Protein 1
Amino acid sequence: MLRSPSAPTDLATRADIDRLLRRFYDRALTDPDLEAAFATLAVVGLDEHLPVVGDFWEQVLFGTGRYRGRLVPVRTALHRQHGLGAARFDRWVRLWTDSVDALFAGANADRAKAKAAAIAAALSAQLDRASSA
């Protein structure tokens, strides 16, 4: 079956990841539930942050080994400032899923959504444990 020219294609390249991240961050920076936490990232330097996040997702989806950052310490600091509870992680996953679905369809797109949900659940649980310790 042939796809129509406007049908979404799968996530396949770093440029695709960068496009997805721009869409997601544009939405997160104006979302009433997430904007405060994401505004902190914007102040730190979104143009510096996005390539690091791109490396992360490129590693997750394509196994490049480029990501050299540390996911948890950044989220822990944001949690202390903004209370990144389960509801905010759920909202993050919804915005991510909506962003993926708006641009892409296929196995990598599905994996990006599943990985985001798993990462959000793990981070939320870890931050909850750290907060109650």
Protein 2
Amino acid sequence: MSALPFPVLAHASGARFYALRLPPGQELLSALHAFIDHHQLQAAWIAGCTGSLTDVALRFAAREETTRLSGTFEVISLSGTLERGGEHLHLSVADENGAMTGGHVMPGNTVRTTLELVIGELTAYTFSRAPCPASGYDELAVSLRNIIPL
């Protein structure tokens, strides 16, 4: 058996889930940041999302600039990780003709009618961001929490 080219934490984790609804006019990233801070979530991910947007702000692969779209969009998927110090989220949307686009979530995604989210949190882990020489970005760093057994 060969060694994996990355560190592996072999500790199982429990999880808890939160459900929330963002109303019309709410900006996605600022709402998620406020939610993460309020609940002090340390290792969260988007477990599910459905809804619609009027404004979409994405960074496409290998691009530095934000692409902004306005109109009527259905959320097809939202996935990624979140922690108090940052996030890494990808969004796919379809316009009123069913044409799809997607990319890295940037500030400026505005809820149209609703955005219904389920957010999970791994209770044994903490997520953070650390510079990665290979990618050139701050990437996910996973560590075990200091858990005191009862």
Protein 3
Amino acid sequence: MSIIRHSTLLSFGLLMTLFGVSADAKFVAGAATSNQSTIKAQSEILKESAKTKPAFQETSDAVKVTQNRVKVFFPNYSRNTTDLGHVEPVWRTTQRRDLSRFAIEQLIVGPTSNETRMGFMKPIQFRGSSNCGSDFTLSISSGVARIKFCKIIPSAGIGDDARVTSSIQATLKQFSTVKSVIILTKEGDCLGDMSGENLCLRRR
């Protein structure tokens, strides 16, 4: 009887050992399967990220800064002409949107050294301080551009006035919103008006 009981216990022990090994094997297999699933899921995420990255790059590349070109008209005496108001255009490029103001600012800056060698000259010179905090004020309304200088513009006579007037008018009239131009001095008088009646303010 003791032998039978011992045999039974031994068999039961072997059975439990086999059961434990089987359970451990199933656990290991399950863990391996779970790990493989995790790796596969991570791989799929990386693939999706790789697919979406170029699309984002294309969107970023599509946002570009607009470059605008405007003409600035300077007197040019390399031409054989007796016209005191003769002006010719040169090009300037900017990212700004206030193109009319930018064009006048470039007119004040004057031609480049290369343009100067080509006969272009600076039409506007200033003297003294500003009474508005800038070189000029500019407004455009109903087709009329009104520019008022805030510094004194020295003039030697009709030739200087003609060069300033022609340069400003040609530069501003390149814009479709400008049909006529009023040019005022620091004191608010019409530039180059020898009559003293400020006739430019009556012409619209």
